[in-house]
């Protein structure tokens, strides 16, 4: 099977689908847009001969976040291979109209074009290549596409964990790094929201009757920032600091949102515990605190299984004349959750892209055909067994 030629035959459909999908606003929480995008994707999967299920996704408070699309194909082998991506973006409704899909040279632009709509469609195209060529040595090929990755996957975590626990390999469809690298490890991330409750008072007449929440927030900010350097490869950043409403009032409330990132699970857990302890004990008398850790995502430090997948990707890349490298990155993704559930994981298997989460987000169209071929070849190589 000539994978490059087979992938090239999928390219016109890929490009048409990409234009249609990017034209749909599907920011996290945009239920109408996410429903439209999921309906499009489910239809294309059905046309490809995949069995499709739409699974409602709800967060721990039972708030509906949209449907996950799970599409599957049965093969002749025994290995279960999971492809994972997401339909939600970070952009608000109206972005598709004000910044529509466009092509300039070898690049496509638009909201979510590489994060992760281009990757999702590459996963579907790779499945189509294998099915069209009658190459189904896998036991089951699953494509799962979620609606809430950009907010930490609070609703789809259980689904991803369940699917990962039965998978022989999980191949994640986030796009490759700008230099073409695949992703073999990701930092863990947690957002810690701290609300400080003080007591208001007139700042000129009786400030001593107040409990200064802003002062507590300032002291806590300094203490948290000083944690940087305590653990290797751990970063702590107070990214949001809000307090007070009027200059003549002792503020009775303040709010911080802290970003924690770490490479190793042990350091991640220790840093998270330290931050929570500091936040829960404000350094101003009369001020109390409430602390919430939002959708913590554990580090994915790689594994022997990841190393085997990288080796297979390099072997397939050599056959296709595609150089394959793999690197660690500081951003987290659903790969972290899949790895935590025990699956061997490799990420960055979409086409090459960059400037995620910005107005200049782009996808390298010249990389689409070779990366679809690489993904299809990797699935085929895994199917008989990684060894």
From TrEMBL:
Name of the protein in question: Glutamate carboxypeptidase
Classification via PANTHER family: ACETYLORNITHINE DEACETYLASE, BLL0789 PROTEIN
Top-level taxonomy: Bacteria, Bacillati, Actinomycetota, Actinomycetes, Micromonosporales
Record's keyword terms, sorted: Carboxypeptidase, Hydrolase, Metal-binding, Protease, Zinc
Enzyme class, UniProt record, top EC level: hydrolase
EC number: 3.4.17.11
InterPro entries in the record: ArgE/DapE_CS (IPR001261), Bact_exopeptidase_dim_dom (IPR036264), Pept_M20_glutamate_carboxypep (IPR017150), Peptidase_M20 (IPR002933), Peptidase_M20_dimer (IPR011650), Peptidase_M20A (IPR050072)
Listed Pfam families: M20_dimer, Peptidase_M20
Single annotated GO MF: carboxypeptidase activity
Domain Peptidase M20 dimerisation: 185-285
Location of the active site: 88, 149 (proton acceptor)
UniProt cofactor(s): Zn(2+)
């Amino acid at each position: 099977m000539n994978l490059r030629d087979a992938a090239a035959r999928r390219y016109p459909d890929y490009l048409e689908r990409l234009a249609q999908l990017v034209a749909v606003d599907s920011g996290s929480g945009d239920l109408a847009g996410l429903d439209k995008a999921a309906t499009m994707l489910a239809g294309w999967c059905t046309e490809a001969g995949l069995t499709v299920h739409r699974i409602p996704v709800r967060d721990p408070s039972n708030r509906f976040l949209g449907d996950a699309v799970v599409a599957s194909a049965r093969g002749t082998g025994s290995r279960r291979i999971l492809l994972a991506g997401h339909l939600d973006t970070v952009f608000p409704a109206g972005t598709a109209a004000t910044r529509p899909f466009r092509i300039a040279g070898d690049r496509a632009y638009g909201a979510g074009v590489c994060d992760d709509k281009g990757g999702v469609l590459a996963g579907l195209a790779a499945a189509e290549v294998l099915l069209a060529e009658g190459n189904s040595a896998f036991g089951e090929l699953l494509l799962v596409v979620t609606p809430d990755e950009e907010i930490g996957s609070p609703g789809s975590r259980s689904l991803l964990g369940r699917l990962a626990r039965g998978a022989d390999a999980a191949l994640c469809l986030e796009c490759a790094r700008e230099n073409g690298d695949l992703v073999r490890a990701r930092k863990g991330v947690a957002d810690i929201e701290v609300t400080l409750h003080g007591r208001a008072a007139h700042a000129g007449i009786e400030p001593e009757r107040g409990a200064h929440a802003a002062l507590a927030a300032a002291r806590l900010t300094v203490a948290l920032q000083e944690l940087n350097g305590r653990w290797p490869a751990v970063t702590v950043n107070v990214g949001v600091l809000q307090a007070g409403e009027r200059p003549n009032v002792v503020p009775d409330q303040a709010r911080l949102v802290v970003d924690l990132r770490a490479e190793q699970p042990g350091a991640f857990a220790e840093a998270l515990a330290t931050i929570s302890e500091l936040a829960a004990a404000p350094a101003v008398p009369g001020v109390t605190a409430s602390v919430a850790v939002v959708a913590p995502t554990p580090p994915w430090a790689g594994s022997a299984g990841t190393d085997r997948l990288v080796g297979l990707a390099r072997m397939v890349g050599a056959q296709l004349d595609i150089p394959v490298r793999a690197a660690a990155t500081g951003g987290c993704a659903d790969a972290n959750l899949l790895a935590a559930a025990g699956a061997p994981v490799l990420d960055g298997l979409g086409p090459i892209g960059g400037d995620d989460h910005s107005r200049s987000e782009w996808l390298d169209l010249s990389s689409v055909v070779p990366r679809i071929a690489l993904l299809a070849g990797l699935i085929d190589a895994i199917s008989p067994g990684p060894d």
